[in-house]
Amino acid sequence: MRKLSFVFIFLLMSSIFVFGQSNNETVVDIDSNIYHTVKIGKQTWMVENLRTSRYRNGDTIPCISDSKAWNYATTGGYCFYKNDEMEEKVYGKIYNWYAVNDSRKIAPDGWHVATLDDWKKLIDFLGGNKKAGGKLKEKEFLHWKTPNKNASNINGFTALPGGYRFYNGNFGFLGETGAWWVATEHNTAEAWSICIRHIDGEVLEMKGIKANGFYVRCVKDN
């Protein structure tokens, strides 16, 4: 009996190590928004998308609802999906890449916007691009549209399909796609982003125009 109990505990601890472990730790940003955290491998991630309206030093990030103003912005800005503030409660704020890359820093102290290397470590830990998307997605159909293929959320990351804002100011793909900025530039016009879709279990690493609007996930500094 003792041997069986030992085996059970060993398997339970192994599953926690492999799939992710929710922390009691929470993080508070400069706007007093509270985020839960999860440890996956050697990384600690926020479970929710970023919602701050200010940089770390207290400066305001402009809210840009007008499509033309969004298109022509060359400095940081945020919005809500279809300019509906109620969407923030579920999905967080949508940011352009200029806000992500601002030297005043958008992440809370002790955290940073996930880099391409951060995402690659997460993806590799979860079995590669073909498998990781399903493991990161929230299960079932509360937010994701069918088929939400291979969704298991076994690590507690809880990726949501908040859609995104195109550089021209239009919105699309709510319920179908989750898209996150990466704090890694590709060139003067584009930066890297991560995309997860309802139609498969993959993670796509994509280059996007910096005026696009995506969500943001943060990782704890080492």
Question: How would you sum up this structure in a few lines?
Answer:
This protein has 222 residues and is α+β, with helices and mostly antiparallel strands. It contains six helices and twelve strands.
Structure description:
A hairpin with a 2-residue loop joins strand 2 and strand 3. The chain has one domain. 39% of the residues are buried. It has 222 residues and is α+β, with helices and mostly antiparallel strands.
Name its key features:
222 residues; three-stranded antiparallel beta sheet; 6 helices; alpha+beta; 23% helix
Secondary structure elements and pairings:
Elements: H1 2-19, E1 21-28, E2 34-40, E3 43-46, H2 67-72, E4 78-79, H3 88-91, E5 94-95, H4 97-100, E6 111-113, H5 116-125, H6 129-136, E7 162-165, E8 171-174, E9 177-185, E10 190-197, E11 203-209, E12 218-220
Antiparallel strand pairs: 1-2, 2-3, 4-5, 6-12, 7-8, 9-10, 10-11
The termini sit apart by 41 Å
Largest β sheet strand count, sense and barrel closure = 3 strands, antiparallel
Q: What is the count of structural domains? A: 1
Q: Which of globular, elongated, flat, extended, rod-shaped describes the shape?
A: globular
